Each structure stands twice: as C-alpha cells, then as structure tokens.
C-alpha cells in the first residue's frame, strides 16, 4: 500500500510556538532595557539637582561674606583714618613739647629743682613732727574733746587685745542722791537721758573708747536687771576698734538708752563668760553694789549686808586672771560700795577710780 504523502503547512503549531517565543523574548528585553534607563535618568537627575542646590547655597553664602567683608573694610578704613589723624595730632603735641623744653633755660630749671627740694624737706620735717605728736598722744581711733585743755592722771589700764566695757544703766544712775533718783524716775524719757550723772557716764564710755589701741577689739555691755550690747545682736562677739563707723554707732546707741530698774552684777558677770575668747581687760562703770541676783527679790527693800552678799556671789562668776578696772560714781546710802569695789580691783590687779563730777 502506497504511503500517503504528508502535506507541508508553513503555519504549523511548532512554527507558531517558535515565533511566539521570539516575540516574547524581544518584548521582555525591550521592557527591561526601558525600565533600567528610566531609573538611571531619575538617579542622575537627583544627583545633579543636589549638586546644583549645594552650589546655590555656596554662592549665597559667598555673597553674604562678600558684603560683610566690604563693610569690615569700610570700618577698618574709617578707623585707619582716625588713627592716622590721632597720630598726626600726637606728633604735633610732641613737637610742641620738645620746642618748649628747648626754650627752658637750664639755670632756671636748676633753681626750680632746688626750691622743690627745699619744699620737700620742710614737708618731711613737718611729717616727722606730726608722727612724734601722734606717738605722744597714742594711736587712738576716736577723739574725745572735753571742757578746756586738761590731762588726767587716772591710773586706768586701758590696753589689751580684747577690752570689755560694762556700763551700769540702772535707775540709780539718774542722780547722786536718793531723792534725786526718786524724783527723776517719774520724769519723761528725754529728761531721764539728760540726767547729769547719766550724761557723765556716757561721756566716760566715749572717753574710754577714744583711748583704746587701734589694733584691739572691744565690746560694750549696758546692764541693769538685763544685759544689752551697745550694738544689738553682737552679744558674745568682739568688735573691731578700727571700725570707726561701728564704734560711733555704739556710742550713739548708748546715748539712746534710759536708766531704769535695779542692778544685777551676777547677770552681767555671767554674760562675760559667754564671750569667746575671754576678755583680757574689763572696765566696770557703776555707782554701787547690786540690788538683786539672777532673780528679782521678793521684798521691796534690801539691806547693805544683803547687797554685799549679792556682790560676793556675782564676783565668783568672773573668770580668773582678768583685771577689773572700776570707775565708781558713789551713790548716797551705799557706804560699802567703795571698799568692796576697791578690793575687787586689787584682787584682780586692776585699778580703782572714783572721779570728780567734771570728769572726763
């Protein structure tokens, strides 16, 4: 049997598959190549844009710096012109001074120098004289001017590194006699402050403060039944004598005080022990023996014997080895005061003074 001859067909399945694959490959390659090109263009554009922005910023900054540089140059130019003008004026003044110096006669110059030397010598002599007078008068911070030109031989020991002034401001300081004390006790505050005995006591404190060495320290306590510093708030502390304003203020504060109430030496001597360091000199201004101790007595009257006992009990509170200089303004009706205070001064190696009414 004869074999049937197969017919040729150009569009068979195999041919179409090959063509389809070929066209697909071409399309895929085309798409891939197109996509990568776009990405590269975008990336290149972004890099260029960033570089352009950076260059623009640099240009802007450069323009600003150029403006500042021009302004600075203008300022420097102005300063240079001012400096040149000032230098020119200074040079002119130098030339004028040189001309004046050249015109001065050497003989006149020597004469002027000799006159100046003589004047300096006179001033040095006057200075030495003043220094000698200061050494004679003492190295005082304050001055105390009394009535007339008088010098007093007191025997008081006013030296020391730490000087404590104890000032009695009890009612008995209103007068020398009991009747005057009773009469003034009922007067006004102004009249109490003007009591002659109280004024003398204040002047005594002022005189003592004017005699203290300038390198010492001090404290002023006013006492009756209580103890008060002349500078409030400084209790227990030492003050510098070279602080003139503070010392003047202390004296003014004392002048504003009013004598009143009784006298407690025991309380003020207890306050002495609170000072640190202890004083090396105590000056006590008073007019009699104490009338009470730490507590107020129950009775209105107190005998002389009881006052001596109060005094002796108070003395036991004093620290040892501290000289006590007593200035006593005797009070009527207190006959034991002088002997007791004199014994206190002797036992402590201090001094005792009962001044006249015109002292200091």
Automatic annotation (TrEMBL):
The answer, when asked if rRNA-binding is one of the entry's keywords, is no
- Residue ranges annotated as transmembrane are 12-33
Q: Where is the VWFA domain?
A: 163-288
Question: Is Cell cycle among the key words of this record?
Answer: no
Instruction: List each coiled-coil range.
Output: 45-147
- UniProtKB keywords: Coiled coil, Membrane, Transmembrane, Transmembrane helix
Pfam families from the xrefs? VWA_2 (PF13519)
User: What is the official name of this protein in its record?
Assistant: VWFA domain-containing protein
């Amino acid at each position: 049997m004869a074999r049937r001859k197969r017919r040729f067909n150009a569009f068979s399945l195999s041919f179409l598959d090959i063509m389809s694959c070929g066209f697909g490959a071409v399309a895929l390659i085309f798409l891939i190549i197109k996509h990568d090109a776009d990405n590269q263009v975008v990336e290149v554009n972004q890099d260029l844009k960033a570089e352009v922005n950076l260059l623009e910023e640099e240009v802007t900054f450069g323009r600003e710096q150029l403006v500042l540089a021009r302004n600075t140059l203008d300022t420097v130019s102005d300063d240079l012109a001012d400096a040149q003008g000032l230098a020119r004026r200074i040079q002119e003044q130098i030339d004028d001074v040189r001309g004046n110096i050249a015109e001065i006669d050497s003989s006149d110059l020597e004469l002027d120098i000799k006159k100046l030397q003589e004047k300096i010598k006179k001033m040095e002599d006057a200075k030495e004289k003043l220094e000698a007078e200061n050494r004679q008068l003492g190295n005082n911070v304050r001055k105390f001017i009394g009535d007339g030109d008088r010098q007093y031989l007191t025997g008081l020991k006013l030296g020391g590194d730490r000087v404590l002034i104890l000032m009695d401001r009890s009612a008995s300081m209103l007068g020398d006699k009991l009747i005057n004390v009773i009469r003034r006790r009922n007067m006004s505050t102004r009249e109490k402050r003007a009591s002659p005995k109280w004024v003398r006591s204040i002047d005594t404190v002022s005189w003592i403060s004017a005699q203290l060495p300038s390198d010492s320290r001090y404290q002023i306590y006013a006492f009756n039944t209580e103890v008060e510093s002349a500078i409030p708030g400084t209790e227990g502390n030492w003050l510098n004598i070279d602080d003139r304003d503070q010392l003047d203020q202390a004296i003014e504060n004392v002048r504003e005080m009013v004598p009143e109430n009784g006298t407690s030496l025991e309380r003020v001597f207890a306050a002495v022990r609170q000072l640190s360091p202890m004083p090396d000199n105590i000056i006590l201004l008073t007019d009699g023996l104490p009338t009470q101790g730490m507590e107020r007595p129950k009775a209105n009257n107190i005998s002389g014997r009881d006052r001596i006992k109060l005094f002796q009990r108070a003395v036991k509170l004093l620290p040892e080895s501290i000289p006590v200089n007593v200035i006593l303004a005797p009070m009527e009706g207190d006959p034991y005061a002088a002997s007791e205070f004199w014994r206190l001064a002797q036992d402590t190696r201090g001094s005792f003074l009962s001044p006249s009414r015109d002292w200091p």
